[in-house]
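Lecture notes, part 5. Sequence design as translation. It can be helpful to think of inverse folding as translation between two languages: the language of shapes and the language of residues. The source text, in structure tokens, appears below.
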């Protein structure tokens, strides 16, 4: 099975989340979170920091990631590790492939304009429910 990651980046005040607009399949034209492939012999957290840096310019100095959950897709032969963090300081975003933007959290992330068949909505709701526990060590 191939591993992938998805990274939920929140603004310092936890009022916005970093999104991208997909330029290619899967989910071309839809809004998504950033992430990518976990390489062979690479641990999930290292892969998440690598993908985040490659796709956005955000480094481990700017954010502390926490492993939130995993999804396993048996018919597609893959799994997805979900990481979440909030920025420690303001950053200058650097688009790699997809257009990046900050989204307010008052959207219906379960809507058809979002990738993942409702998973983004589920992940955002989990962070909302457990925000204090997730970010208790983040400064």
């Amino acid at each position: 099975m191939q591993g992938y990651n998805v990274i939920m980046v929140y603004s310092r005040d936890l009022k916005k989340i970093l999104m991208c607009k997909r330029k290619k399949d899967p989910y071309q034209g839809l809004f998504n979170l950033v992430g990518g492939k976990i390489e062979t012999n690479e641990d999930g957290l290292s892969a998440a920091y690598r993908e985040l840096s490659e796709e956005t310019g955000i480094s481990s100095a700017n954010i502390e990631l926490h492993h939130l959950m995993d999804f396993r897709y048996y018919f597609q032969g893959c799994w997805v590790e979900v990481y979440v963090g909030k920025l420690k300081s303001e950053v200058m975003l650097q688009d790699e492939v997809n257009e990046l933007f900050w989204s307010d959290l008052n959207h219906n992330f379960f809507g058809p304009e979002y990738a993942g068949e409702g998973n983004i909505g589920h992940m955002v709701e989990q962070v909302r429910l457990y925000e204090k526990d997730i970010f208790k060590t983040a400064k």
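The translated text above is only one of many valid answers, since several sequences can fold into similar shapes. The first helix runs from residue 44 to 56.
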